[in-house]
């Protein structure tokens, strides 16, 4: 597999079909997250605006090759609470603009470096957990039970249900028409994923997801003609706002209430949005880079700036806050996207379809789109991922599994936090054990012990070094050799000096240091 870098359009034969698939995935998610975030059907278009801005604006500025930005489920609760606190969607838009400005400043201050400190085991656990979550959350939609919004990632739902009770409800209140459509859709997707289909020139450019959507529309129209009891309508369909005139369409766009500058709550919400959106973006960037078949690295500071400009733009024209999102990004990768043109294409199609064919889009059954997301979920959480992580040993596998369980039982950010704690424990434990080499030799004059310090000795190592010094046998000779160390933290130097000057003489231990400078022990005797 090779990447053509001659021009932004040189990979169009890969990027256009991929952008089309991402569009089909993004459409219901943008609408679902908008409804869940605002609780108002008249603000559904705010999700579409955010999706368009995430695709075109962020896609044009970002250097992320395959990352896709848009409204995120992780911000739903924050948006809901913010609207309740501020009492006005227009005042909330001002908070979104300010959050974007904070992100731009954070990027300029190089805060994106935080993205490099997420352990690989946690990121891979996040990917697997999102895959499982997608499967569990989309099964109800595939069964025709659409009480929860498409795109929800949290275990507990605002209607009092949770991921597992929704599965039972899906069985109890299933729709035969939806099950037939989702089964046919899954069958088509699996067929199109077979190698022999990809050798057919037509199907290299037209993705299977487009045929799935067409099949879903035709099947539902067939129900209307021959089996009315199976017809899907209302909440079982895409519900994009349809304007009856140009004036009504432009009425979907809102502008911030700049008089809310005097409201302190606006700034609190802006900071909260900026922090959470930035964390979700950096997590998604790290995950997307791991999935990228070309193993490109995204400049995280540039990404924060791009996301910040995106949020400022979205807030100024009536859109929800945005982040880079892993579901759409992974759909982009799985569909063969090569460059950020696929992201821009998805945003452009989203805009054009919302302007030109909104009524036609409302013929799409959610069951068809659920089938697409089910396959995305499966690819994120393949058995080979678990097998590979298990082979790496418990220091990688345990944080990986804990992250999965924590995300599935809470939400993305809480689950990541739990996974980070466990991963850091194993990092500290390993660091504790490998800060030096312990060499014991027998000489005629007695026992000589050499502690050969590692290249990097930080404050994290002081516990293990202190314990080793305390457990040295009385009367021994110890050589503490730091000649190969590039850096030894003050904390460790202080422990060594305290031992050499105070503890060792009391126990008749002879201490020789090599390559270790004396330090002034503040507060010492």
UniProtKB/TrEMBL annotation:
- Its transmembrane ranges are 20-37, 43-61, 89-109, 116-136, 173-192, 204-226, 266-285, 349-377, 397-428
Q: A Pfam family name for this chain?
A: Sulfate_transp
**Location(s), subcellular:** Membrane
Q: Where is the SLC26A/SulP transporter domain?
A: 12-402
What domain of life does the native source organism fall in? Bacteria
Membrane topology per the entry is: Multi-pass membrane protein
Q: What is this protein called?
A: C4-dicarboxylic acid transporter DauA
Say which species the protein is native to.
Answer: Dyadobacter linearis
Q: Which gene encodes it?
A: dauA
């Amino acid at each position: 597999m090779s990447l053509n870098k001659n021009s932004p359009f040189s990979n169009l034969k890969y990027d256009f079909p991929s952008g089309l698939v991402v569009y089909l995935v993004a459409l219901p998610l943008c609408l679902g997250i908008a409804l869940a975030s605002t609780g108002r059907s008249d603000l559904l278009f705010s999700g579409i605006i955010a999706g368009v801005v995430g695709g075109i604006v962020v896609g044009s500025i970002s250097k992320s090759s395959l990352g896709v930005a848009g409204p995120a489920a992780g911000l739903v609760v924050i948006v809901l609470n913010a609207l309740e606190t501020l009492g006005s969607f227009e005042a909330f838009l001002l908070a979104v603009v300010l959050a974007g400005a904070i992100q731009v400043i954070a990027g300029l201050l190089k805060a994106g470096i935080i993205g490099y400190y997420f352990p690989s085991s946690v990121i891979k656990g996040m990917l697997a957990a999102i895959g499982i979550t997608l499967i569990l959350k989309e099964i109800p939609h595939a069964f025709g039970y659409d009480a929860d919004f498409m795109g929800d990632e949290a275990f507990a739902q605002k209607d009092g249900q949770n991921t597992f009770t929704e599965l039972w409800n899906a069985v109890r209140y299933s729709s035969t028409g939806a099950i037939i459509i989702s089964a046919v859709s899954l069958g088509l997707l699996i067929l199109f994923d077979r190698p022999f289909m990809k050798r057919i020139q037509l199907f290299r450019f037209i993705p299977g997801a487009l045929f799935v959507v067409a099949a879903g529309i035709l099947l539902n129209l067939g129900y209307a003609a021959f089996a009315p009891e199976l017809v899907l309508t209302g909440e079982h369909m895409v519900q994009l706002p349809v304007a009856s005139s140009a004036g009504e369409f432009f009425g979907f766009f809102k502008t911030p209430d700049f008089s809310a500058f005097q409201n302190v709550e606006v700034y609190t919400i802006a900071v909260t949005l900026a922090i959470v959106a930035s964390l979700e973006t950096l997590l998604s960037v790290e995950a997307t880079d791991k999935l990228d078949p070309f193993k490109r690295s995204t400049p995280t500071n540039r990404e924060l700036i791009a996301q910040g400009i995106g949020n400022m733009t979205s807030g100024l024209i009536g859109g929800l806050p945005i982040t880079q999102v892993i579901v759409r990004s992974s759909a982009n990768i799985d569909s063969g996207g090569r460059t950020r043109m696929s992201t821009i294409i998805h945003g452009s199609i989203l805009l054009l379809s919302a302007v030109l064919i909104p009524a036609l889009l409302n013929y799409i059954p959610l069951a068809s789109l659920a089938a697409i997301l089910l396959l995305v979920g499966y690819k994120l959480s393949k058995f080979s991922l678990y097998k590979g992580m298990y082979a790496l040993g418990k220091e990688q596998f345990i944080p990986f599994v804990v992250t999965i369980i924590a995300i599935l039982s809470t939400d993305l950010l809480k689950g990541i936090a739990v996974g980070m704690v466990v991963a850091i424990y194993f990092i500290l434990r390993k660091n504790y054990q490998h800060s030096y080499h312990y060499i014991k030799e027998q000489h005629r004059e007695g026992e000589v012990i050499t502690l050969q310090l590692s290249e990097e000795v930080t404050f994290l190592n002081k516990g293990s070094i202190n314990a080793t010094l305390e457990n040295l046998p009385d009367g021994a000779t110890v050589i503490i050799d730091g000649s190969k160390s590039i850096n030894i933290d003050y904390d460790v130097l202080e422990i060594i000096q305290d031992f050499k000057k105070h503890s060792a003489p009391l126990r008749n231990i002879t201490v020789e240091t090599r390559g270790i400078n004396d330090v002034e022990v503040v507060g010492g005797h």
